[in-house]
Amino acid sequence: MSNSTGGSVVGVDVGGTFTDLFHFNETNGTFSTAKVPSNRGDEAVGFLEGLTSFGPLTELASIVHGTTVGTNALLERKGAKVGLITTEGFRDVQEMRRRDRRATWGLSGDFIPVVPRDLRLEVAERTMADGTIRTEVDAEAVKAVCFELLSMGAEALAIVFMNAYANPANEQAALEAARSVWPNDHIVGSASILPEIREFERTSTTVLNAYLQPVVGNYVGKLEAALAEERFDGKFHIVQSNGGVMSTEMARTLPARTALSGPAAGVIAAAAIAREAGFPNVVTGDLGGTSFDASLVVDGKSMLAPQTTIDFGLVIRTPMIEIVTIGAGGGSIARVDAGGMIEVGPESAGSRPGPVCYGQGNDRPTLTDANVVLGRINAENPIGGKLDRLDVEAAKAAIAEHVAEPLGLGVMEAAEAIVRIADSKMGGAIRLMSIERGHDPAKFAAVPFGGGGALHAGALIKDVGLKAALVPRYPGVTSALGCVIADIRHDQVQTLNANLDGLDIEVLDARMMEEANHARAIVESARLAVERIDILFELDMHYLGQTHTLAVPLPIELKDGTTGVTVELIRKAFEKAYEASFSRLLPNIGVRIVNLRTAAVGIRPRFDLSALAAPKDTTVEGALLGHRDVWFQGEWHKTAIYARLDLPEGAVISGPAILEQPDATVVVDPDLSARVDNFGNIIMERA
Amino acid sequence: MSDAEAAALDPVTLAVLKGRLEQIVDEMDATLYRSAFNPTIAEAKDACHGLYDPVTGDTLVQGANGLPIFVGAMAFAVRAVIAKVKEDGDVADGDIFLFNDPYDGGTHLNDFRLVRPLFRNGEVFCWMASVGHWLDIGGNVAGGYNPKATESFQEGVRIPPVKLYEKGVLRKDIISILEANSRVPTSNWGDMNGQLNALELGVRRMVALLDEYGDQTIATAFTAFSDRSEALMRAAISALPDGSYSFSDVLDNDGIVDETLAVTLKATVEGDRMTLDFTGSSPACKGPINISRSTTVAACYVALKHLFTDVPANAGCLRPIDFVIPEGSILGAEAPKPVAGYTETILRLIGVIFGAIAQADPDRALGGPFGTINALSISGHDHGRRFVMFSFFGGGLGGSPKSDGLNHANNPISTATIPPVEILEAAYPVMFTRWGLRPDSAGPGCHRGGVGAVYEIETLRPSDVALLGERGKAPPFGVAGGGPAAMNRFYWQTDEGEESPPMVSKITDLHLPAGRRVRLESPGGGGWGDPLTRPVERVKRDVELGFVSVASAERDYGVILDKEGEIDIAATESRRKEHAK
After folding, report:
1. Given A169, A185, A201, which residue is the final one in a domain?
2. ω before B336 within 30° of 0 (cis)?
3. CA–CA separation, B390 vs A376, rounded Å?
């Protein structure tokens, strides 16, 4: 039984160190998880090893994969050799960027573009801003530069013409000419990738897609071949940066959309878990070795950002789950600067050599070292299972030397200071996402995932004034779970550049229907079971004269082949959004529509999260592992230590307490209490 | 909390408050960028916000993104308002002051400052200020960069500190004055509203923070931040060897008289103090490239922040610095000397500080950045409506001990991004025919400078063109043995061919019919280190990429390439040996 509904779904999240898998049997509502080492460069090995641990692959109906292979190729500059063809006079757009620099202060550092200048060639052609064509493109000239690029070893081709967003005719003609001579399918045109105004962002996005096509294509191909060998005949999908899944065909065409695949899946799962538990508004937090990634979920929906910068000058413009990253992770180094201020991060010892307590050669104290010294982390049984024990004394000595002594503090006070400053930095990221967007933090819960976040979740309640913190039952496999429950999604954009006054509403309506039908067709072609397909429209709008735009969601339902859109409806939606953002409207100024954004979302059948519930037949006493001294608020507290997974549903634990499980540690501060809810989550609130 | 308790603020609270306060200012910046009308603020981020001392006006807190030159200059603006309040004896909760006076804490007329007191218990607790570059405020040239101005009256309207809001009530008479004095009043009005949004938000956030921590705690933290900056700056200066380091550079001309103008510095390091002595700089000039004393101090601050990046931006870091700025020089100009082109002078000034420090500490040596703002305006009428396209252009940064200079970067005084061609073409009747990197523009070096750019624009309607640029006579300098970059060039098409401005990079009253092109070629950055030590493979690669010509490879780097572009090893070795003599 492979392809019938009610088979098994597996989410696979391949991270840098481990591959996490979440297997869900839809027939009987049971699940299991697996964790295997990742094999960098040959991810298929760990991927298959994990999958087969659940039984023969013929039993699986579908596999959904969160991957960092695209991101890694970008960061390590290991993409394809790309040739770029541009409008005459514009081959340097990618390298000239938006004339920025790396940092506000300090002028050193250079920029190496992914397509070097000698692989960027020009052809005569020109489209004007209003879409009229001033110079037609010559197909023979395009073929000639294609041959030149091929002779220099180009493996993939990108074509970006000026103003192609306004009229793609020249670019399409060039694509056609190129296809007739290019030896493979790795050809990307800017207007089909991103028909949006701003040539640098469009060029960068197009070029990065071309750069990743062979990489992601090969990767997906390898996985598919390996799956076929195991006679898997279900469906295989990839999670995108927007938190939705897409077919492998789409992933091959638009590989840049996988840039935040893994983190996006985590946010999706955290949002779903929290919504089910009665917390529709949450801030998710993933504490890694070097950074803390926060993301906002409002009314069960994750916020999307229009673009992201992977590294200086590497911009990908496509809707992505908005993630705010700050340099405070477990490996972040604590120090006292020449002005006497404690700093934690952004410098980091990462996971190698890692914190002092790992004993791998670093001697400068990190956030993890502070957590160990305070007794919050179990030094005798560290999570992750790689190390036998942690060196508390070495951590203590490092904190004494680098923080306590320069400030005249005791070593315990210094360790607590490091944790509090890190908490405050994480709080800053959460404040940035919530308060700065006009949301009241008292209505939000923190949802930590990954291994370390639950150490700090309680503090965030107090620091930012959050309502509660919710620790999912399996924080370490949240991204894998997200793969299983993510919806299918496809995003499109089209620049319109039209004034609201005098807008031809029928033309817009037709355009919106066209976009909707196209997006819907892509979601349908993913061939996954969906309950329904929602179409979402957003306009990027501004007052005439402004350059930044505001995302304006349109309250629209498709009926009888029309959107029913009106000028009044658009105006009201704009004013509502503008007022919410800036508080003052500018009544006498005209309003302009810059872009139309269309998303089709295929809503997947609901995943019953009560499958994750805690046992009902255990006891709190039975889960008690013992006691140890933990330092809170300036003194040692005798603190109960529990096996988190053995706590029964409905258990209530008063702080101080530490809840341990193989992949995470939950710290319950003295003034907080924790309970186990119906879905196996730990809910921490003020006592 | 008692004063005694507050005085001993623990290090944790201090670190937490530092983050919280900086976040408030960052949020003010972001609010203005997102709601501003003119691209100079919205895209180029020509704006800044901060918190200032209630009595001295000293900078207390700055965000991460404020325009660097404003970061240095804002304290002077707040001081101007404090003086005004003292004179009138009149400030109330809900007042907001507005002004652009360049001689009284301003920079140039386009930069409008809004300054608002934050009241607690009936007294000013601190000042909050916002500055943004408005698109047009009258004057002879649209956009304000009038290279022929000899008095500030030709540059636009000058507003001393006046109340825009009085006890929370908008003074419409002030708005009327502003409206009547701009070619694009709507744009200015939109930007002003953006700045008001930012101030309002700042006040809201500050009040919440004060309520949470207590006024005394925050006040104590302000003092601690300044002390810390001072300590860090002293530590940085102490690391430099004692001694005097001199460096001089020139400006092309003032746009009126075609004579070079000197910016001369002697930097003296003594222990943990440094004196920046500008004696020997040229007297104030007729044209618009003078700067006031306060702008000079602000520019020094920018240069030092680029060299000592770890020192936080507040008043404390200037305490160990003494300034000698000759009165009546181009660096200490007074009203009504024209100042619209102030950017050019401060860029030269920042350069001479880099040049002097490069001698003191080779590890901090930075090749001269491209060193001109190239303020270009193209204006006219399109279908009966007035248009003003105004933008600043980029160039290369200098090489450093770490790397080659950055190609096509912004100036050290700003973090401005350039508007995309497609945005400009959609908004104005122009067509760019070239937007590319400029060959042989980078200063040669072991680490060469960044590459400058070529921008070529065709007018689609009859247009008036004005340019205020520099670096047409003296190129960006190299350091530690590196060579100079290419100079700035500007051309326009005529029936006969091409012409260049008599004042090299400054021109106004240039009327072009539709269909004519102008071309701006910007300098690269100066090189770092002896070019003969640059690995030959890297020189060859630069030739392949078209950044360095075959001729320059031979002349500047001693690298000889054959017809196939391969290195002639023997010829190269002997040429390099010969050069080295």
Report:
1. A185
2. yes
3. 58
pLDDT at A41: 73
- Is residue A68 a part of any domain in this protein? no
Contacts of A91 in chain B (CB under 8 A): 436
Enumerate residues 6+ apart whose C-beta is below 8 A from A110: B403, B404, B405, B406, B407, B450
* Sheet (strand A187-189) strand order: A120-123, A82-87, A156-160, A187-189
Question: CA A497, CA B419: separation in Å to the nearest integer?
Answer: 17
Q: Between chains, do A546 and B306 touch, taking CB under 8 Å as contact?
A: no
Rounded distance, CA A138 to CA A123, Å?
Answer: 8
- Across-strand partners of A121? A85
Q: Which of A97, A165, A341 sits opposite B11 (nearest CB)?
A: A341
**B3 — pLDDT class (breaks 50, 70, 90):** very low
B206 versus A608: the higher-pLDDT residue is: B206
If you measure CA to CA, which chain B residue comes closest to A549?
Answer: B34
What is the average per-residue pLDDT within B461-484? 96
Q: Which of A109, A129, A589 sits opposite B425 (nearest CB)?
A: A129
A529 and A559, same domain (yes or no)? yes
Mean pLDDT of chain B: 92
Domain annotation covers residue A133 = yes
Residue type at B407?
N
Range of the domain at A637: 613-686
Instruction: Tell me whether residues B426 and A109 touch, CB distance under 8 A.
Output: no
| pLDDT tier for residue A1 given thresholds of 50, 70 and 90 | very low
Choice between B3 and B304, residue whose per-residue pLDDT is larger: B304
Say if residue B8's pLDDT is above 80: no
Asked whether the beta carbons of residue B43 and residue A547 sit closer than 8 angstroms, the reply is yes
CB A614 within 8 A of CB A676: yes
Q: What digits encode the pLDDT tens for the residues B68-95?
A: 788 778 888 999 999 999 999 889 999 9
B200 touches chain A (CB under 8 A): yes
A90 and A164 assigned to the same domain: yes
Contact assignment for A342 to B229 by CB distance below 8 Å:
no
Q: How far is A175 from chain B (nearest CA, A)?
A: 21
All residues of chain B having their beta carbon less than 8 Å from the beta carbon of residue A109 are 400, 402-403, 406
Query: Around A340, how many Cα atoms within 13 Å sit in the side-chain half-sphere?
Result: 16
Q: Are residues A362 and A290 in the same domain?
A: yes
What are B246-263's pLDDT values in tens digits?
999 999 999 999 999 999
What mean pLDDT do residues A480-492 have? 92
Instruction: Give residue A385's pLDDT band: very low, low, confident or very high (50, 70, 90).
Output: low
* B285 CB within 8 Å of a chain A CB: no
Nearest of B491, B518, B507 to residue B375 by alpha carbon:
B507
Query: Could you say which DSSP state residue A538 is in?
Result: E
At residue A429, the pLDDT reads 86
What local confidence, expressed as pLDDT, does residue B1 receive? 40
Give first-to-last CA distance, chain A, whole Å: 50
One domain, residues A430 and A556 = no
Per-residue pLDDT tens for A318-341? 989 998 888 888 999 999 988 888
Query: pTM to 2 decimals?
Result: 0.90
Shortest Cα–Cα distance, A427 to chain B (Å): 10
| Chain A positions in Cβ-Cβ contact with residue B235 (cut-off 8 Å) | 338-339
A97 CB near a chain B CB, below 8 Å? yes
Our count of domains for chain A comes to: 4
Closest CA to B277 of B345, B329, B337: B329
Helix H segments across A448-498?
457-464, 478-485
Cβ neighbours of residue B323 under 8 Å, at least 6 residues apart? Answer: B275, B276, B277, B278, B296, B297, B300
Confidence of residue A387 (pLDDT cuts 50, 70, 90): confident
Last residue of a domain, one of A445, A467, A498: A445
